[in-house]
Design a protein that fits this description.
This protein has 140 residues and is an alpha/beta fold. Helix content is 41%, strand content 19%.
Length: 140
């Protein structure tokens, strides 16, 4: 049973139709998965710091807290959200936050990036993300 399911937390209202995308700051959403509320808070802080480094506007955080299985409602809501909204970046605390299975994590990353958003991790470089995708494709 989940300790806490904060699957969807709106940091501020965002209406993409009101923005001129070429002149505006890039838009990001966050995904955090943690076993405890304290760990989720720490990871959210790391994600916010990464957003500041990237100079992007973090508009939503999707948080799954206490889920030890592959069932992650916050992640599903994130994928649904970016499918219908313009998002430049998805920032996550780590590649393992998209699933314990590397192949499943890679499929999630691919699905996100097909929307035009770039996946960024607080604990890895883009080269690490590309390597994860390459390995997952070899074993798929």
């Amino acid at each position: 049973m989940a300790l806490l399911a904060l699957a969807f937390h709106a940091m501020q209202r965002y209406n993409p139709s009101n923005m001129n995308r070429a002149k505006q700051q890039k838009i990001a959403v966050a995904y955090v998965s943690a076993s405890t509320v304290d760990a989720a808070r720490q990871r959210c802080e790391a994600v916010r710091a990464k957003a500041a480094i990237l100079n992007v506007k973090l508009v939503l955080e999707f948080i799954d807290c206490g889920y030890k299985t592959s069932k992650r409602p916050g992640l599903a809501k994130l994928v649904d959200y970016i499918s219908s909204n313009e998002v430049d970046y998805v920032i996550a605390a780590g590649s393992d936050h998209f699933g314990y299975d590397g192949a499943k994590a890679a499929k999630t990353i691919e699905a996100i990036e097909r929307t035009g958003a770039q996946v960024v991790f607080t604990d890895a470089s883009r080269r690490d993300v590309d390597e994860l995708l390459k390995i997952a494709k070899e074993f798929a």
